[in-house]
Amino acid sequence: MTREHDNKEEEKRNFFRVDDVIPVVANPVDSRIREEVQKKTLCSKAFSVEDSTTPQVGDTGGNGYDNPEYRKLHDMMIEVRSKLDFVINHFLLEKEGLTTNEKKLVNISASGIRFTITNPVKVNDIMEIKLLLPTYPPVAVLAYGEVKRVKKIDDDQYEIALEYLNMGEPVKNEIIQYTLCHQRETIKKFRETQMNE
Predict the structure, then answer these.
(1) What is the rounded CA–CA span in Å between residue 178 and residue 34?
(2) Which CATH number fits domain 18-52+62-196: 3.40.50.12500, 2.40.10.220, 2.40.128.110, 3.40.190.10?
(3) Exposed, middle or buried: residue 140 (CB in 10 Å: 0-12, 13-18, 19+)?
(4) Closest CA to 171 of 59, 43, 1
(5) Is the pLDDT of residue 105 over 90?
(6) What is the model's pLDDT at position 180?
């Protein structure tokens, strides 16, 4: 084994892994997309479900609206924009299949993800994964992964483990932040339970 391979394996072991139940949609990719993923022309993406650039109600952004009528109109427009952003994001998530009952028990880290599916796949298959990280605001992730393990659970259930492909630092950082927050919450709940006993 090469030194570079050993370093990558060590890096994967350093990421937090957490178990959670989150919306996940996974589909095998066709040969055209597979080639693009292998050529690294298709990369993972992440986007916040809530527009963080929207000013808060009452924030006039330094535009000098001292007149109460202008301020009231400005606040109403901000509220309308916020609601419109919510509706648009909801439709985008619905289109991607992330608002349905596709929640799955996953084991996730910044290097890969494990969950169950109903369609059989093979080791080395490449899959498109869409997931919604339950952060605040929620973050939708589109990633590609190579199947590393397949375990048949019963007639129509397969547990698969995927390693992410072409994952850039911004997406990896979103997953790292999510896993760290989840780990922190788990420890906090455990401590609270211990103190209450």
Answers:
(1) 28
(2) 2.40.10.220
(3) buried
(4) 43
(5) yes
(6) 92
